[in-house]
Structures are given as C-alpha cells and as structure tokens.
Amino acid sequence: MYRSIVSALALAGLAGSACAQSVEFRVVEREGQTTVVPGSSIPTTDSILVFAVQARVVGGGPMDGVSDFAFTIRAPCESDDSGTLARLLTSNVDGTYAVNPFQIANSTVGRGGLAAQFTYLAGINQNFNGMINTSSGGFTNGPDQEIGLVHGYTAGSALLQLTDLNQDNNPDTWPGTGTTAPIEPSYAAAYLGAGGNWVDVYRFKYTINSAYPARILRFVLDRVSAQVATGLQIINGVWQPVQSPVSAVADMGGIVIVNFAEGSTTGACCDAATGACVTSNGVFCNNIYLPGCGCEAIACPQPGPCCSGGNACSLTIYSLCTGSWVLGSSCSPSPCGALGSCCDATGGCTSSTNAGCGGTWTSAGSCTPNPCPQTGACCRAASCVLATTNACSGQFHGIGSACGTAGNLTTCCPANFDGASGVTVQDIFAFLEAWFAGDVRADFDRDSALSVFDIFSFLHDWFVGCS
Q1: Which residues, in sequence order, are CB contacts of 416 under 8 Å at separation 6+?
Q2: Could you read off the pLDDT of 442-453 as tens digits, one per residue?
Q3: CB–CB of 307/324 below 8 Å?
Q4: Which tens digit of pLDDT belongs to each residue from 321-351?
Q5: Which of the residues 241, 246, 317, 367 could staple to 301 if both were Cys, CB 3.0 to 4.6 A apart?
Q6: pTM, two decimal places
C-alpha cells in the first residue's frame, strides 16, 4: 500500500521585542521522498525515510548562530514494532558535513546523529546523542517511536574542530590576547545556522516494517529549547559560546498527512465504560477519542468501580469518576460502602470507603481535625518520600518539610539545579552556566575546586534522576 508523507515541522523561538532573535527548527526528508511502498526496492518509493532536523537563527547578525539546543523526536501513535529508527552519518572525520548517500547508519559521537560541532556534551555522555526508544535521565520513553534526550552544545574540541585551523587550541578569530573572540561569519552561516541559513543539527532514518499496514505517519519535535551564540569566550580553559537564550514553541500546522487505507483521518475511540477500542473518524465516538492513532498503538484506560452518592456504584475510568474510584472490574458485589477517614502515607486525610482507601481506614472517622500521623521529607540518596520520624530510614528534614511540588522535587534532588520543573535539560543549561562562571554551586563533587569532574558528577546524578 502507498502512503503520502509531507514531513515538515517548524519550531520557532519567540521573544518579546520587535528586533529579537528567534531560532527555528524543522524536520525534512533529505531525499525528497513523499511516497512509501513498504518493502519496495524502487529507489524513489523505497521503505527507508531519511530525515534531518534542521535549525536556523532568524533576526540575528551574521555571527549569531545556534549554540545550545535540546529536543525529542517523536512519531505519534507509531508503535515500536512498526519500523526501525537509527542515527545517520552526519559529519565527516574533519567535522564537515557528510553528503550523499544519506542512508549510511552511524552512531559514533562526532560522526552520526548530532552534527560534530554540537557534540561537547555527547562526548562526555553519549546518551546526549539521542536515546532511541529507551529511557534515561529526565527522559522516559513512551509507546511511540522516539529519539529522546538529544542535546547539542558547541564548546571545547567540538567548537574548535573547524575554527582552529592553525591548531593552537584557540579559535582563529582570537586576537592573541584576552578571553574573548568573535565567531567567523562564514562558519556561523555554514554550521550554526546564522543569517537564516538552514543547517542539519541531527540526522536519523526510519525503515518501515513491510508487514505493517498503511497508516498515518508524522515526525514531530517535543520539549524544544535553544540558545544563540553571540561570541566566544574562554573560561576554566575551555572555549565556549557567549549565549543568549530564546524560547521555542511547536507549530503543528506544518504537518500534512494522507491516510490511503481509510481515505480520511481516523483515530482510536476508547469506551470509558468497557475499556474497549474501535477505529472511528471521531464523529461517531462519544467517549475518549485519540485522533491519528490506531487501536494497535493505543492501550485504552480500563474502567473500575466508581463509588459516589453514598453506596452507588458505576463502572468508569479513573479520570471520569466524580467519587471514590476502586481498582477492580465489577460493581457486583459492590465495593462501595459506608464512609470513614483514610490516612495516607503523607499524613493526609480523606473521606473514603474502606475499599477505596489505600492507607489506614477508620470506620465513621472524621478528617476534622486531622487524625493522621504527620510527616516530613525523608531523603534516601536522591529519593524523597514523606514519612514520619520513626518511619524514615534516611535523613529526616523535620515535620512539615516537603519534597517539593508535583513534578518539581527539590529537597533531595541536587540534579534539579535550577529548582524548577523537576530534572530537565534546563538544569544542564543552568549547571553549565554556573560552572563556566566559576560559581561555587557548580562544585558538585564538593572537593573545593571546579574541574571537569564536577560535570561528570552532575551528569551522573542527572541521569539517575530523582524520585
């Protein structure tokens, strides 16, 4: 069967002032292929799609180029068994771009995946070259085809490979004194996307499984962030960019997909009462509709007994239950009963049935005043739980202390360097900024000296994450 694919995605960095810079990203098929025949050997319609993620700076000067970026590549509703993702050859040994043929797979840092000029962090930990359908650090792999944790940064040898032709460990634009240097405009345009020039920052390919049916296929970029270099500076013996951050947002309007199997866009319709899935165009789905997805790629949420209005029991999914939801599959016999107080592990109290209580339940008990033992933050390495003093087997931070807010653990989480939004790539930005600035907070191994070992220590904790 045939599929038509138009794979274009623009992600633009937006700023507040009228003359502000922006960074745009897009996904392009490098061979111009728009039709796929699974298993075909016809060159123009083969089963291999060759992609590049491209970036450019808009609104900047001739020396302002992309210096730091992060994103996740994802094919929504494309399950892991529907095809195979792989990194592609991007750079030659000397750091210049590799040209045709584009289908050569290569995962070596500095050659495949990330373009060579953006591999400073990947040279320290190769996971930054993209995790293909696996989880690591702040990235959790989902059911879709994904390349997560792609993080490009130009500094050190990655930066100097094409800017230090006289090999004195300084950029050729360095005047010979001082700690700063401009970026050579031709290099910025050819490799950093300056002046609005599109450059490949990452390459990958997708081989279609010929046994899989025709379907909707699209590649998008998630969790995008970027910074722009306005010059170069040397700090702690490492040449690195003088950076200006820009925010990035996704523009889904660039995606156009034609589904030849159905003749129209369809999706998965999940029945909230039974948990069953049927394929629908959305018009006839009166429950949970997931457009663009087939039932083979979706696990519909399963219903359970919902206790509301006293002892009334109905089957529905957790998110639609307006009362107390109970893990189970039947209202016969009914799990709903009289209400009492339920004390959870955090010291919180809720009014619940015995069946619906996941903690300690007291029949006819009241939550006013709160009868539950009070807790505080208990640290075991980078893991934080709320526990009573007696139940804490690690470091207890006192009654009433918290691990942080939902999605933003801070008390036991040094990898959450900026203290915002949990462990994300922004923490790497913040840590490197502090490290290059000589900030004592970046002395991560606590040896009273800043060195590359602090970067190793931080990235180790960052990949372990917090819980």
Answers
A1: 404, 408, 409, 410, 422, 423, 427, 466
A2: 898 888 887 777
A3: yes
A4: 777 776 666 787 777 777 778 887 667 788 7
A5: 317
A6: 0.60
